[in-house]
Amino acid sequence: MKEIEMKYGRGTMKALIEEKNVMEVIRSNTVKQDKTEDEIISDALHNPIDSKRLKDIVNEGETVCVIISDVTRSWQKPYKFLYKIVEELNAGGVKDEDITFLSALGTHRKQTKEEHEKLLGGELSKRFKVYDHDCFDEKGMVHLGDTSHGTPIIVNKKAVECDHVVLTGAIIYHFLVGWSGGKKSILPGISSFKTISMNHSLSLNEGLGSGMRDNVRSGNVEGNIVHDDMMQAAAMVKPSFMFNVIMGPDGNIANAVAGNYITAHAAGRKLVDNIDGVNIKKKADIVIATAGGYPKDINLYQSIKTLMNAKEAMVDGGTMIILTQCSEGIGEIKDIKDMILNYDNMLDREKELRERYTISKYVGYFFCDIAEKCKLILVSEINPDLLKKTKIILSKTLEEALEIAYDGDKNRTISLMYNGANTLPRLV
């Protein structure tokens, strides 16, 4: 027998499994890096991909909008690289008063002054003000045109009225657009609620009852209509430069890319694959995955990345065991609660999602849909009453969850995911 120990909340959970049944142990790849974070950032800025250096793109008297992520993405360590971007702009002749920092909130809430300081760091926060994008502020936006998919591209005026737009952020796997970063600073980052909703609704096939598009998933841009729609939006804004970081398993900046927002992002996607893309030889009957403990498993909403990644390692109709404590239940976002609590069948959930699409509704829909298509067991403290209209199975311990998963057959193959929120299994 083999004892496994996986993160759960602020602690761990243990269980015994037959070692012969373990087919794959899926972890992020080891990162070998002999450079400091500062050196990585500088190297990327000094050696941009398919682009001049930022200081050679801008000129004195020109205005620049630097789009930054919001505080929910503070793990990107923006204070480490934003001051270097400002140094490049200043070296190109751009004065501080001609630089605007615009936080790409998408549909997220406004931020506090303290949160702005956390993003910019002590020195920059004294020199610059951060403007929060408001997706409902119609007067503060401009309509640039429509994409070939019919999405009206309505974006923040502060960006398009500047001579240059600089995109910043990080590239990680994203369950709708394949990878985050790059164009996502524009859509959803600085777009109107209408634009965001119409773009994200492309994740569904045409026609009620047809469910989600297969090509709209983590680690894929080929045939991904959501990605293509975002790229068309970015082309209308015409970013002058992009800088994105890639994080390592230790939470530090492991790599960075800069330059052309299309080709530099493509190079960044490969770097993410090298770290978090894990090749597997075969899919397992049972996948056991942890969200990674607190705060990644603070509520059900935050656990969606683990669910979507674990799905890629499981045979069709198999079993997933997701360790997610959910000390704060489903999450405080009303839409995910509505999707889980107010409907008892997938057709009605899909109808509601199509009529009033939001990401949080999509998350609720996805959890319920997966539970319809496979055996989904959550090792969690979530109140069972919250999930009574779904087919999600709840368990208090990993050992109990395994007994449910085996269902009398202890020869079932098992794959283990210790970094479920980050690693994407890829069948080779």
Q: What's the total count of β strands?
A: 20
Radius of gyration: 22 Å
State mean pLDDT (0 to 100 scale): 93
Q: Under the CATH scheme, which architecture of the largest domain would be assigned?
A: 3-Layer(aba) Sandwich
State the fourth-level CATH superfamily of the largest domain.
LarA, N-terminal domain
- Which fold name corresponds to the CATH topology of the largest domain? Rossmann fold
Spatial separation of the terminal alpha carbons: 29 Å
Q: Which regions are unreliable across 5 or more consecutive residues at pLDDT < 50?
A: none
Assigned CATH class of the largest domain = Alpha Beta
Helical fraction equals 25-40%
Strand order of the largest sheet: 3-19-15-16-17-18
Counted up, domains total 2
Overall shape: it is: globular
Oligomeric grouping of the chains? single chain
State the helix count. 14
Structural category is alpha/beta
Largest sheet: 6 strands, parallel
Question: Roughly what fraction of the amino acids lie in strands?
Answer: 15-25%
Structure description:
By secondary structure, the protein is an alpha/beta fold. It has two domains: 2-28 and 277-427, 2-enoyl-CoA Hydratase, Chain A, domain 1; 37-247, LarA, N-terminal domain (Rossmann fold). Helices cover 31% and strands 25% of the residues. The protein contains 14 helices and 20 strands. It has helices at 37-46, 54-57, 78-91, 113-120, 122-127, 157-160, 193-200, 225-237, 263-276, 304-311, 334-341, 346-355, 359-373, 398-406; strands at 2-8, 11-17, 22-26, 64-68, 99-103, 130-132, 141-146, 152-156, 164-170, 173-174, 178-179, 241-247, 253-259, 277-280, 284-290, 314-323, 375-379, 393-395, 414-417, 424-427. Strands 3-19-15-16-17-18 form a six-stranded parallel beta sheet, sandwiched between helices. A six-stranded mixed beta sheet has the order 6-5-4-9-12-13, with helices on both faces. The longest helix has 15 residues, at 359-373. The chain starts with a strand and ends with a strand. The mean pLDDT is 93.
